[in-house]
Structure formats: C-alpha cells, structure tokens
Amino acid sequence: MTLQSKSFGSTCKLSEKFFNAANKCGIVESVISWVNFKQLEQQDKKCSTNKKKSKLKGIPKLEDANDAGTKNSHLCTLILTEGDSAKTGCFWTWCGQTRPIRSFPPTRKDAERPRSEHQAGQTISDNAEINALLKIIGLQYKLKYDSNEEMKTLRYGKIMIMADQDQDGSHIKGLVINFIHNKWPSLIRRNFIEEFITPIIKATKGREELSFFSIPEYIEWRQNNQNWHTYRIKYYKGLGTSTSKEAKEYFSDMLRHRIKFQYSGPNDDEAVDLAFSKKKIEERKVWLTRWMETRKERREQGLIEDYLYDKDTRAVTFSDFINEELILFSNTDNERSIPSLVDGMKPGQRKVLFTCFKRADDKKEVKVAQLAGAVGEMSAYHHGEQSLMMTIVNLAQDYVGSNNINLLLPIASPRYIFTQLNPVTRALFPQPDESVLRFLYEENQRIEPEWYCPIIPTVLVNGAEGIGTAWSTKVPNFNPREIVQNMRRLILGEELKQMVPWYKNFRGTITQLDDQRYVCSGEVAVISSDTIEITELPIKMWKLQRVRDRANDGEHGQISPDDH
User: What pLDDT digit, counting tens, does each position of 283-294 carry?
Assistant: First the structure.
C-alpha cells in the first residue's frame, strides 16, 4: 500500500472503463476500510492498555492521581503541563494536600497534526509522548466514547491543559483539541477538555496587584490609566517564571483560572477543521486575511485587539478559541516563518543582525554561544538557544548554494565557535538609515526594528524560504551584480532586464521553464555502465539519500548517458 510506483519494476496501463468499473464495485472503499481497521488495531496495541488500571508503571514524569483508574476515575482531571518547570510548580502546589483527582505529566511542544493525513496513524503510533498520554487517560482508538459505558473505561474524566499564556501555548492547546476532535469527536461534545490560564503580565503598586491574561487587555488598561508607569510591570514568558507562592495563589482561585471548553454546535467542528485540515488551506488564507484587515482597521481607529479572557470568563466555545486565540498564533507563525519582503529576514535573523550592530565597536571575533546570549539579552529573544545558534550559523555560511553574501563571517557549525560581522554588511544596511526605522519595544526595552531597509533587495541576494500557516514562500538567490545593475536602471527609469537565479561558485546550469519554475542541473559524467562521477550537485540536493533516489529513477536503477 505504501510502496512507490517507481519501485514496482514494471508499468501497467489500465483503461478508463476499468477504473469506472472498479469505482462502482466498492472494492476501493473495502480496501481502505480494511486498512483503517488494521491500523486502528495496531495503534491500540501500542497505545492502549485495553483494560482499566488503577496503577501505571514505566511512564516517566507522571504523577498519577490516587483515584485514577478506580470507580471514581470520572471525578479525576489530568493536568497536562507545558514542560517540566510548570509540572514542578503544579506538583508542589498540591504536595501539601491530598491528591485524589489530579495528575501532572509534562507535554511536548511538537505534538503531531493527524488531520487529513493518509499515514497519520503510523506517525501517531510511533510517537512515544502520545502513546504515553493515551495510556494515562485510557483512550482506545476503537471506541467512540459516545456512551456513558464507554466513558467509564477511561482512567480520567477530563483533561486540563496548563500551557503558557503566549501564542505558543495557544498552539499547544489547539493541537490537543485537534487530536481529540479528529480521533474522538464525541469527547469534544462531552466537554472533555479544560484549560488552566495564568497571567502573562502583572502590574503591582504597593499591595495592589493586577493580573492580565492577554497583551490587548494590558494595553487597554494602560490606555485608560495615565499613571500606569508608576506600577512595576512583570512579564511572564512561561509557567516556569511563576514562583511557588504564585502557583498556590492560582490554584486557590480555581474559579478564575479554570476555563471550560464548551461545545456549541457544528460551528465548533467547522472552526477546528478550518484551523487544521489540509483541505482548508485556501479557506485559512481568507480567515487570516480578514483578521489582519480587521486588526488594521481597529488600529487606524485607535482601538485595541479583541481578547478572549476577561474577569468574568468561565467558559469558552471551541470556535471562540480558534477565532480569537489560536488565530494569534497562526498570524505570529507567519511573521516568524516567512521573511519580510523589505529585508529578506525573519525576526530571529533580524535580532542577530541588530545585536551585531550594537556590538559593532567590538572588532573581535565572538563565540557563537556568547553571541546567542547577547541576542537574548539585547533583543528579548525568548525561544530555544540551539535554534538561535543555528540561525547565526546560517547567516555565516558561504558554501555553494547558501548565501551569495554572508552577513556574518563564515563558520560551519557551532563547534567552530568564532564569528563576527562581515564588513560588507554595514554597507548593505547603512547606519544613517536607522534614524527613520520603526523600532519595536518589548518589556519596555527597545529592540530590533520592524524591518531593515538595505540599499539593494537582500531578499533577492540570499533568497528567502519559509512555511507558515496557509502561506509559504520560496525565493531563489540572484546575482548581486545583476541586482545592482537593475537598481540603477530603475533609478534612471529604464527598462529592467530579466534575471535568472544565480548561486556563487555554482558550476551547474539553471534553465527557465516558465514564469514560476526553473530546472537546476548539476554535473555528472558516465564513466561506465555501472559507474558515474558526480562533480556538481544541483542546488539543495545535498543529502546522500536524495542523490541515491534520483540516481535510481532510471529504469531498473540504471542511469544512461541520456538521463543526466
């Protein structure tokens, strides 16, 4: 069922009449149904206990509820925390009390997206975190949980998601909701999922303490209070930044922090499907475009963005969560993943460049790890350090197919530890232009600009690539000299000349097929019937397995002189 056609060893051409007859006989539906059944059977063997157990062993980091898997399991709530630090705070909050109804396993941030994927079952069944989660809850793929009898087989009556109150936390909530909705929609209708919200900002003045659960709510308070600057403002970037005292305060006021997800009808199903289905890409574009247009209109009118949680919020519908909270992550995902057309950079790259410019007086080379630390300090970078170091490495690479102009001096990997600003970078981004740039602020700190304005379009020099929500982009590299010549023609009002993608020191050929497509060819010499010599790989064709796959594309795995 999964073998690629090129590996069959022969081809079979069937008539249209045969396909029509096959569609009418129902054999296709029968085969798909059988495959799905076997897949669910395999998943249940890996993921489910198939028997309600009061005690589970061998699951790391699980603090099981005392009544889980007993006759009182329907009263138990499984708390899923984002990371170990949140789990620790959650556990110690309840340590001095009885723990009959709550459990605290940490969740991973890279949950699977199973919806509309043909081989999703294989992906999920191989995921250790999801397998453990299903065992903890007692979920079985073969059950629908549309009856009270099936609900009694679960070890927990509800799950509560305790994620960060930022956009990434919203993404985690959305992934959990999508997974449950895709596999057991009846649980969504039974209000099986809850969330635990915590402040993202606190403002304190003497004994007065104000908590804000969204940035727009905080901005609204600032606009309505002229003396806001007399308060001490603290930003909470994750659950781990809350103290044990604060965690106890949160759990002592469950009415305020515990929010129920309520099913309101088909609109909820449509909203979840819109946010995650692979078949809804175009609809997601419309969804996000309308949201961006509304945000722009509100800003022009001096209005703040809508926010979901206020002081009286006790429950939200799934459609409200998707359209008012998850959409913030979807928009942020595009801002992070798709480079700006103005400077060709993503926010992480721009933060690195901003930090290097601030350290420009230091002419010495700097360790990659030290530069990453400086970026976190100077530009309020709050994500993984390893990801940031790879961003630095990518800005410095100059091998064939990477950067035509590397903004940092070359390094191959973080272990080759030194780098510094390339002198030509300052020429591309003149310092006098910074006085007209719009710099951003975070935590009352001035950080990098919304975008830099290079003297030539660097988005064409080094290309751009990114996959966001509903949108993606891929811009090839072009010759800087040809770009400069076209810029001069543009200034003089002359007709521009068409450019073809170009990569420094690349010896292969790039041929245009149409307005959107090019063919990139390397260099290969056929030495004998069983030997070839590859002297230049096509751009981006660097992995050995991909080269082998292309080499085996010929009939019976042979490459003839005409194939290259």
Answer: 999 999 999 999
526 pLDDT more than 50: yes
Instruction: Say how far apart CA 498 and CA 482 lie, in whole Å.
Output: 9
Q: Where in the chain is the domain with CATH 3.30.1490?
A: 199-235
Q: Say yes or no to pLDDT of 419 above 50.
A: yes
Q: Estimate to the nearest angstrom the gap between the alpha carbon of 199 and the chain centroid.
A: 23
Bridge-based pairing state of the strands 509-512 and 518-521: antiparallel
| Residue whose structure tokens are 């064409």 | 460
| Catalytic option among 263, 416, 452, 518 | 416
Instruction: Give per-residue pLDDT as tens, 306-358.
Output: 888 888 899 999 999 999 999 999 999 999 999 999 999 999 999 999 999 99
Q: Topology of 347-492 in CATH? A: Topoisomerase II; domain 5 (3.90.199)
Q: Which CATH class is domain 199-235?
A: alpha beta
Rounded to 5 degrees, what are φ and ψ at 297? -65, -40
Helix (DSSP H) and strand (DSSP E) numbers for the chain: 22, 20
What is the distance between the alpha carbons of residues 298 and 310, in angstroms, rounded to a whole number?
19
Query: For the segment 501-510, what is each residue's pLDDT rounded down to a tens digit?
Result: 999 999 999 9
Give the integer Cα–Cα distance in Å for 553 and 320.
49
514: its two tokens = 């149409």
**pLDDT value at position 97?**
37
Tell me, what's the pLDDT at 544?
Answer: 64
Question: Which has more confidence, 108 or 404?
Answer: 404
Name beta bridge partners: 260. 194, 315
Q: Is 141 a catalytic residue?
A: no
DSSP 71: T
Half-sphere exposure of 323 toward its Cβ, with a 13 Å CA cutoff?
Answer: 14
| Position 14 pLDDT exceeds 90 | no
Q: In 10 A of CB 523, how many CB atoms?
A: 14
H helices of 380-500, in order, are 385-396, 423-428, 458-461, 480-492
Return the amino acid letter for 456. I
Cβ–Cβ under 8 Å, residues 68 and 155: yes
Which residues 6+ apart lie within 8 Å of 227 measured at CB? none
432-441: burial string, b at 16+ Cβ within 10 Å, e else: eeeeeeeebe
Q: Is the pTM of this model over 0.90?
A: no
- 84 pLDDT band (50/70/90 cuts)? low
d(CA 469, CA 170): 14
CA distances from 405 to 41, 187, 457, 462, 477 (A): 54, 53, 12, 7, 10
Q: How, if at all, do strands 464-467 and 472-475 pair? A: antiparallel
**Rounded mean pLDDT of the chain?**
84
Which residues face 158 on adjacent strands?
77
Give the residue range(s) of CATH 3.90.199.10 domains in the chain. 347-492
CA distance 409 to 418: 9
Q: Which CATH number, 3.40.50.1220, 3.20.20.140, 3.40.50.670, 3.30.1490.10, labels domain 41-113+120-198+239-337?
A: 3.40.50.670
